[in-house]
TrEMBL record:
One of its GO terms (molecular function) is CoA-ligase activity. Coiled coil: none annotated. One of its GO terms (cellular component) is peroxisome. PANTHER family: AMP-BINDING DOMAIN-CONTAINING PROTEIN-RELATED (PTHR24096:SF149), LONG-CHAIN-FATTY-ACID--COA LIGASE (PTHR24096). Keywords: Ligase, Peroxisome. Pfam families: AMP-binding (PF00501), AMP-binding_C (PF13193). It is found in: Peroxisome. Belongs to the ATP-dependent AMP-binding enzyme family. InterPro entries: AMP-bd_C, AMP-bd_C_sf, AMP-dep_synth/lig_dom, ANL_N_sf. This is Luciferin 4-monooxygenase. It comes from the Eukaryota. Residues 452-523 form the AMP-binding enzyme C-terminal domain. Residues 44-401 form the AMP-dependent synthetase/ligase domain.
């Protein structure tokens, strides 16, 4: 983590932001290095730490040093060049975490190609969409999505090279990529210098699984150099997010630039995570909000001392204050900290620290700016007034790849990025997330926050997970419906939850479309709720009600 956060720290350190006309500005910190590109930074960092352990496969205990990692990356870079990949070409990776998943990404930075991560559990429509958007020259993938990828390639009538981690008919095995290069070729290889630090280094996809088809975000070399500077090298961090997720990319780059050991484990298994914390003395976890909730609700944390663990940084959805308080009860020695950010700014724009209030997402980070506006008229709002969150940052995206229309829509004339998220900033400069504009439910013209209903339903002792959606209605716009899973050993009725909302909230918030109990919730690979699946269920519910 970028700030040391021990139990003996001052409660209220000096503020690192200023406020001017209700615009919150983080501390300005210019780029502290002379690196001309991400490839140069990675090349020199790996060589600097060549004798350190780079990766440990938690499932097999296999160890890879930075020197061994460099050998693989150079071989992959030579292979890419041999197959005509040049500066500005896109290579895509569709894989969970394993010892070789990072190799093509790093190789791309050495030859100034553009890295692009795909979600390994995407559906065929999404595969067609991202293929058409990015048009990669090479796709590296595991066996699980290869059939789907080959089908999408055929449907789109394009011809990228497909490389598979393993063996699969009609594709190139990754082992072949790493073979066949002489000692002299290896010794003579050098990263290519970059002529413009603002050129695109990678393309990340927005989380289309929750908001529709993903957009492709261009993040520059400069953005990454700014994002990873000045991080501590003496802390062990564990995450499970693949290179599709911004967390997976940021944490991998930070690990390389500080020479730390990465524990590779691809699954959100609470029991195994506890065992890994104990075995490798993990200090920090970086998880999605859903995975953080699951980790707590699993109950396994009480079986282990977890004495090395200092805290969990989470993001991606609202972490309820009740959940943070429960963590403090179960593991009082750790901090549960919320971050708020977007792929469009390469990660965090605010970070909650131990002295910030429970339920907030903390204050604006360095090189960032925040303001809250009225989405109807664009007026900047003051403290404790709810509106749309707008952002400026030194790590802001170059734009949406091959989509100038979407880029123009998200930025206003003054260069503010409109996040689509609803929140407010309190008198101390701490940000609170209320909802997404797209998740607000409209009942007879009144905007209803699904998140506020979810927070209330979470106070019921038998509720494990909850998501509230709007069911289309022919005369009322939408009716709220609650999807709920129940904790083992509890019995919860629909009437209990409907009455809970009716007694504690105004009429517009009532669960007019009722409660739907599910055995499990659909989740993405990062632990985040797959809202699109629930939205599809809500639409079917509307059709059923209309038929009835």
């Amino acid at each position: 983590m970028s700030d040391k956060m021990g139990a003996d720290e001052p409660k209220v350190p000096p503020k690192k932001f200023t406020v001017e006309n209700n615009v919150y500005k983080g501390e300005v910190k210019p780029l502290s290095s002379d690196y001309k590109g991400l490839g140069e930074l990675i090349w020199k960092s790996i060589n600097k730490y060549k004798n350190n352990i780079a990766h440990v496969d938690a499932q097999t205990d296999k160890v890879v040093t930075y020197a061994e990692l460099q050998n693989k990356v150079v071989r992959c870079a030579l292979w890419l060049q041999e197959h005509g990949i040049k500066s500005g070409d896109v290579i895509s990776i569709c894989s969970n975490n394993h010892l070789d998943s990072i190799v093509p990404y790093l190789a791309a930075t050495y030859i100034n190609a553009i890295f692009n991560g795909w979600y390994e559990k995407m559906d065929l429509n999404t595969a067609r969409h991202v293929l058409e958007q990015t048009m990669p020259k090479v796709i590296f993938c595991t066996k699980e999505p290869v059939d789907l990828i080959l089908t999408a390639i055929k449907d789109k009538n394009c011809s990228p090279i497909v490389v598979v981690y393993g063996d699969y008919p009609g594709t190139i095995p990754f082992s072949k990529v790493l073979s066949g290069y002489s000692d002299s070729q290896m010794a003579n290889f050098r990263y290519l210098e970059l002529d413009d630090i603002k050129k695109t280094a990678c393309i990340m996809h927005t989380s289309g699984h929750t908001t529709g088809m993903p957009k492709s975000v261009e993040l520059s070399n400069y953005c990454w150099l700014m994002s990873v500077q000045d991080d501590n090298a003496d802390e062990v961090v564990l995450w499970c997010a693949s290179l599709y997720w911004i967390t997976g990319v940021v944490m991998n780059i930070k690990a390389i630039t500080t020479g730390v050991k990465v524990i590779i484990y691809p699954y959100y298994d609470a029991e195994m995570i506890c065992q890994l914390i104990e075995k490798y003395k993990v200090n920090w976890l970086s998880f999605g909000t859903g995975a953080t909730n699951y980790f707590l609700q699993s109950g396994v944390t009480t079986k282990y001392p977890l004495s090395s663990l200092q805290g969990i940084v989470c993001g991606g959805a609202i972490l309820k204050a009740k959940t943070q308080e429960e963590w403090k009860r179960v593991l009082p020695h750790i901090h549960i900290l919320q971050a708020y950010g977007l792929i469009e700014v390469a990660g965090m724009i605010t970070l909650q620290l131990p002295w910030h209030k429970i339920g907030s997402c903390g204050t604006v980070t360095q090189n960032g700016e925040l303001k809250i506006i009225d989405p109807d008229n664009g007026k900047t709002l003051g403290p404790n007034q709810t509106g749309e969150i707008c952002i400026k940052s030194a790590t802001i995206m170059n734009g949406y790849y091959r989509n100038p229309k979407a880029t123009k829509q998200v930025f206003d004339a003054e260069g503010w990025l409109h996040s689509g998220d609803v929140g407010y900033i309190d008198a101390d400069g701490e940000l609170y997330i209320v909802d997404k504009l797209k998740d607000l439910i409209k009942y007879r013209g009144v905007q209803v926050s699904s998140a506020e209903i979810e927070i209330l339903l979470h106070t019921h002792p038998g509720v494990l997970e909850v998501a509230v959606m709007g069911v289309p209605h022919p005369t009322d716009d939408e009716h709220p419906v609650a999807y709920v899973t129940i904790k083992p050993g509890f019995t919860v009725t629909e009437k209990e939850l409907v009455d809970l909302v009716a007694k504690n909230m105004t009429d517009a918030f009532r669960l007019r479309a009722g409660v739907v109990f599910l055995d499990t919730f659909p989740h993405l690979g990062c632990g985040r709720l797959a809202k699109n699946e629930l939205k599809a269920m809500a639409k079917k519910l509307a059709v059923k009600e209309a038929d009835d």
